[in-house]
């Protein structure tokens, strides 16, 4: 039996065509705490069900991120990871299980997500993210989330999302610290891109990775959960529009968290008119600079 509030199609947001507002009884039960929220309701829940989100990296950030997106009823979640699960991942990558060591992490994540919410579709991409796969995968999703921990993949994703016109919700962790921002520079000013913040990739070896410097597992849990929150807020508003999501989004802002001090700070990010990616005289027009395969995704 399918039933639920029927609203005129005109009430639906224009860029999610013919949104289906019918929910099964089981869906209404499952999402009842969402539907109670004024900023979500049945229309918001239908918007979540219609959404397609790409999670790059099934690691420390991707684990809570994908779990909360699945639990929230995001209708289609793509998971990209070509790595095999290792024992040292399990200190923070809570979507996996000890018995799955050696298995592909995108497949392992999909198994947990399907058990949590069988109502949604999981698309497994057990592949290395390079320029070709980025060009192929990103246009198939509404929003992209960066859960990787190496600069070549981060720069590839940032450039690809700008050039292919998709919002990017990006988080990073190291030791006891986390950062978060959303990039929607494809919408034009005033939205900055990732290169307005970091014009060039830092030289190899300058910034250590989690596998070199360590990370407190719970820090990845907080940052991945904050990332999920921002993705849901974007979907509940007008995905991909200048109007943005519900509340205040993270485009043009960078959240910095120090877990040892337990202090959150937010700094303003400005669009750089001379930016090589989003500036008026942009020189980065395609992904040719990323032609070489990026190193391993997501060991975060
Ligand atoms: Zn820029």
Task: Briefly characterize the structure.
Helices cover 31% and strands 16% of the residues. With 300 residues, the protein is of the alpha/beta class.
Roughly how many Å is the radius of gyration?
19 Å
- The name of the CATH architecture is 3-Layer(aba) Sandwich
Proportion of strand residues: 15-25%
Number of strands: 10
Query: Number of DSSP helices?
Result: 10
* Shape label: globular
Catalogue the ligands: zinc ion
- Class from helix and strand fractions: alpha/beta
Secondary-structure element series: EEHHHEHEHEHEHEEHHHEE
Percent of residues in helices = 25-40%
Report on the structure:
There is one protein chain. The protein has 300 residues and is of the alpha/beta class. The chain is built from 10 helices and 10 strands. The strands form 2 sheets. Strands 5-4-3-6-7-8-9-10 form an 8-stranded mixed sheet, with helices on both faces. It has a two-stranded antiparallel sheet with strand order 1-2. Helix 4 runs parallel beside helix 10. The longest helix has 20 residues. The relative contact order is 0.16. It binds zinc ion.
Task: Identify the notable features of this structure and list them briefly.
single chain, 300 residues, alpha/beta, Rossmann fold, eight-stranded mixed beta sheet, two-stranded antiparallel sheet, 10 strands, globular, disordered N terminus, binds zinc ion
């Amino acid at each position: 039996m399918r039933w639920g509030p029927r609203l005129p199609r005109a009430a639906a947001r224009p860029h999610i065509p013919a949104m289906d507002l019918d929910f099964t009884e089981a869906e209404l039960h499952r999402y009842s705490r969402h539907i109670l929220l004024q900023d979500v309701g049945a229309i918001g829940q239908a918007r979540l069900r219609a959404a397609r989100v790409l999670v790059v990296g099934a690691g420390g950030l991707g684990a809570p991120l994908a779990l909360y997106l699945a639990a929230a009823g995001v209708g289609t979640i793509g998971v990209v990871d070509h790595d095999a699960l290792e024992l040292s991942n399990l200190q923070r990558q809570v979507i996996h299980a000890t018995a799955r060591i050696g298995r592909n992490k995108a497949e392992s994540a999909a198994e947990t997500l399907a058990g949590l919410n069988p109502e949604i579709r999981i698309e497994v991409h057990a592949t290395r993210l390079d320029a070709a796969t980025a060009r192929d995968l990103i246009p198939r999703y509404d929003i992209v989330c960066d859960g990787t921990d190496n600069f070549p993949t981060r720069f590839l994703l940032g450039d690809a999302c700008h050039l292919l016109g998709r919002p990017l919700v990006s988080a990073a962790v190291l030791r006891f610290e986390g950062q978060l921002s959303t990039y929607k520079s494809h919408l034009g000013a005033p939205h900055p891109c990732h290169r307005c913040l970091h014009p060039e990739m830092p030289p190899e070896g300058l910034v250590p990775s989690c596998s070199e410097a360590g990370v407190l597992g719970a820090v990845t849990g907080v940052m991945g959960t904050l990332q999920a929150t921002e993705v849901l807020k974007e979907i509940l508003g007008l995905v991909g529009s200048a109007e943005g999501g519900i509340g205040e989004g993270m485009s043009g802002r960078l959240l910095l968290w120090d877990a040892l001090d337990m202090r959150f700070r937010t700094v303003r990010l400005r669009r750089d008119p001379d930016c090589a990616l989003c500036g008026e005289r942009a020189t980065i027009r395609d992904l040719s600079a990323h032609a070489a395969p990026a190193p391993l995704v997501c060991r975060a």
